Amino acid sequence: MLKQSQMLIPTLREVPADAEIASHKLLLRAGMARQLASGIYTYLPLAIRTLHKIQAIVREEMNRAGAQELLMPAMQPAELWHQTGRWDVYGPELVRLQDRHERPFALGPTHEEVITSLVRDEINSYKKLPINLYQIQTKFRDEVRPRFGLIRCREFIMKDAYSFDTTQEGLDRNFQAMYDAYTRIFTRVGLNFRAVEADAGAIGGKGTYEFMALCEIGEDTIAYSEEGDFAANLEKAEVVYTPSAKPEGEVPAAQKVHTPDVRTIEQLTQALNVEAKKIIKSLIYRVDDQLVMVLVRGDHELNEVKLKNLYDATHVGMASEAELRELTGAPAGFVGPVGLDAKKVEIIADQFVQDVHDGIVGANETDYHLIHVAPGRDFAVSRFADLRNITEGDKCPRTGGAIKFARGVEVGHVFKLGTKYSQAMGATFLDENGRSQPMIMGCYGIGVSRTIAAVIEQNNDDDGIIWPVAVAPFHVHVIPVNVKVEEQRQASEQITEQLQRAGIEVLFDDRPERAGVKFKDADLIGLPLRITVSDKAAQEGTVEVRVRKNGENHVVKLDELVPTVKALLASIDHTGQELFGE
C-alpha cells in the first residue's frame, strides 16, 4: 500500500518564479520534478510512474510494429561523427568532452552514427534485412536557451529507432509502420496531435513528418487546412503561386529618391505612402562559400530552410555588414539588385516577386531607394523559387482551401534517411546477385520526457493537472477526511486494498492534514478519481467519488465501489484499452 506520508511528493503552494508555462509550473508545484541546473531535471516518484507508463506504451507499439529493443552507449567517439561529417556540422549543441587520454567524445544527442556502425559490422547480407532497432535512453543537447521545463532541456529521455532496408519499397513499409505506431502511441497517451510535413534539419534525409502536440505555448507554427488532412511545419509548408494579372501600361523609368534613415519595410511604407507588397526586400546571405541576394516581397518573410534546401547547403547565414558594404557600397536597409555584378553575387527571388511590376528597392547608396523598378528590365533574376513562409489565408497546396495556423510542440518525428549515413560509413550488404549495395535507412524519434510536459500542457485547469487515465501516476486518490478517526482510517485502508486487488492503482493520503489541504493537493496532483472517506463510510456504507476531469461527484455504496470505479475510469478514458487486470 503506497501511503502519501511516505512518498516524496513535495507540493508547493506558490508558483516558482522561473516557471513560464502551465506544465513547468505544475510539474514543480505537484512535486513531480526539480531542477538541478538549467535544462537539467530530477524526476521525482510521481513523474517516474508516468514516465514508465509512457515508456510501456512506446515499447508495446514499437514491438507490435516489429522493432527490436537494444541500448547503445551515450558516450560516442568523435571518429564516428567525423565519418559522417557531423562533428563540425552539428554545432555547439553537441556536448563534447575528452577522456583521460585526450580522445574526443560526444554525449549522444542522437545515434545515427552508432547504430550505423553496429549494423555495418554485424550485417552484410540481404537475408538479414530488413531490421528495425530502437532504444529508450537519455540524450544530451547543449541548448542555447533551455526553457519551458521539460519542453526544451539539455538532458532528456528519448526513444529513437532506426530501420535498415534493401529497397526503397522496404523503407516505405517500415516508415508507414512507424507512422502508424506513432499515431497509436500519441492517441493512447491522451494527446491532441497532428502529423505534419517537416524539414529534416541536421539529421538529413527526405520524407519527414513531425508529430505535433497542439498547444498555445508551442514553439513551432503549424500550417493546416480544415479541408482534407494537410498539415506542415512552417519551415516546410509549400506556397502555391498563381501569377496575378499584369497591369496595363509601361512602368516609368527607375528613379532615385532620398529616404534618410528609412531602413525597414514599415518605415518605407510610411515614408513613401505605399503598400508593403510593392516593396522588394533585398537580403544578402552567405550560402556555404558563396554570396546570394534573395529577393522577397515586402509583405512576406524569407524562409531560410527553403533557401538552404534550394542550394542543398550546409551553412546559411546573413552576410556581415562588411560584406554588404564591399558588395553594394551601402549598409543594410539600402541594398538592392539594380546594378550588382552577377559574377560576385547570384540574385534569386521568391516566385511572388514576379507580381511586383512597379516596385521599390534599395539604391545601393546610403539614405536612398529606387522607385518604379521593374524586375527583368532593371535587374535580372537567375531563378525564381518558393522561398517564403506560408501565411494564413494562402491556398492549401493539396485542396486549394485557406491555410490556417496553430501552435504545436514536437513530440515525435519520422525520417526517411535513405543512404546518407550508410554510404558515408560503408554500411553495405550483398544483394541476391552478390553485389554490394548501401543499406537504405529510416530514423524515428519520440521525446518521451517532453511528452509528459505536452500531456500536462493540454490537460490542466486553475487547480492543477488533469491526468488522462492511461498515463496518470495512480488511478485513484483515497482521502480520509480525518485520518485520526479510526473508522475512517480502517475504511480507507480496506478500500485501498480492495481496489488494488482489482488492478487499480491507488495513492492513499494518510497524512494528518486538514481535509482542505489534502483536497487542494489532490486537485494539484490531478489523479483521475478522488474517493473521499468520511463518517458516512461507517454510518451509511457510502463514500464520495469525484471525477477530476469534469468535477462530477458520485455517492457510491462500498459494496459497489470497485465496479463503479472501473466504469468511471473507462468512461473518461478515450483509448479503449484494457486498463486493469483482475
List keywords for this structure.
alpha+beta, 582 residues, 5-stranded mixed sheet, BirA Bifunctional Protein, domain 2, 31 strands, 3 domains, proline-tRNA ligase activity, Rossmann fold, nucleotide-binding, 26% helix, Proline--tRNA ligase, YbaK protein
Give the CATH topology of the largest domain.
BirA Bifunctional Protein, domain 2
| Helix/sheet category | alpha+beta
Q: Unreliable segments (pLDDT under 50, ≥5 consecutive)?
A: none
**Top CATH class of the largest domain:** Alpha Beta
Mean pLDDT: 93
**Could you tell me how far the N terminus lies from the C terminus, measured between alpha carbons in angstroms?**
17 Å
Whole-number count of domains: 3
- Assign a percent range to the helix content: 25-40%
Shape: globular
Going by CATH, the architecture of the largest domain would be 2-Layer Sandwich
DSSP E strands, number:
31
What is the helix tally?
15
- Report the sheet with the most strands, covering strand number, pairing sense and barrel closure: 9 strands, mixed
Q: Report the portion of residues in β strands.
A: 25-35%
Computed CA radius of gyration, to the nearest angstrom:
29 Å
| CATH homolog superfamily of the largest domain | Bira Bifunctional Protein, Domain 2
Please give a structural write-up.
- There is one protein chain.
- The strands form 8 sheets. Strands 3, 7, 8, 9, 10, 11, 12, 21 and 24 form a 9-stranded mixed β-sheet that branches. The protein has a 5-stranded mixed β-sheet with strand order 16-14-15-17-20. Strands 28-27-29-30-31 form a 5-stranded mixed β-sheet, with helices on both faces.
- The protein has 3 domains: 45-238 and 405-457, BirA Bifunctional Protein, domain 2 (2-Layer Sandwich); 255-385, Alpha-Beta Complex (YbaK protein), CATH 3.90.960; 465-572, 3-Layer(aba) Sandwich (Rossmann fold), CATH 3.40.50.
- 26% of the residues lie in helices and 28% in strands.
- A hairpin with a 2-residue loop joins β14 (280-287) and β15 (290-297).
- The mean pLDDT is 93.
